[in-house]
What does this fold into?
Amino acid sequence: MIVTWFRYDPGEKGPDPHVHRRHTDAFFVLEGEVEFSLGPQLQRMTGRPGTFAAAPPNLVHTFRNASDSTAVFLNFHSPSLGFGDVLRGHGEEGFDQFDPPADGGRPLAEAVFNSPGEGELIENEKGSRLIKADLPHVTAIDLTFQPVFEGVGLHAHDDHVDLFYVLEGEIEFLEASGARRAGPGTFFAAPRGTEHGFRNPGAGPIRFLNVHAPPGDFLRVVRRG
It folds into this structure.
């Protein structure tokens, strides 16, 4: 997976409509508005902060900033399949991106578009888990934990990458070498086999986006509480 932080100026356009045949292209809006066009008919949908949108393989999509304000968003390619090389100016040859297929590709119903507050909500006294995406290549959860949450101790995943983007509050991330505190805008990634954990060290709630790629079995654990 590759994760990219983008800032689009007012009126800035994204790529032409396209598909990826072997990976999922996903987005999480942080600031402003991003207009997504999804599916065979390029249905337009406006994503505001907290929106998660995703185009699985062979689903036509594009995006732009159609507003008069700056837009900031995260972009996830899972797996990356060379997108980092494209961003670094090494060209698009061999990258998994193609013109829309003649049959229109997958239907709009197979896209993910969850606006702020939308998703599969699971709550308890320690906080809330809002599942924003459950796809074969990636899962995403908007997580909020109260101070009573005791945290998650050091552990490792052998089959997927565990990613965190801090949205609100201050989180203490744990590593084998120690701990570090991080506020909003911080990105933390634990590659396969890397020990990691986290806790809420303060008196207020913490909120972060948690992404697993590939998904592994994490959502089953989340859903059983």
In short: The longest strand covers residues 24-31. DSSP finds two helices and 18 strands in the chain. The radius of gyration is 18 Å. The mean pLDDT is 96.
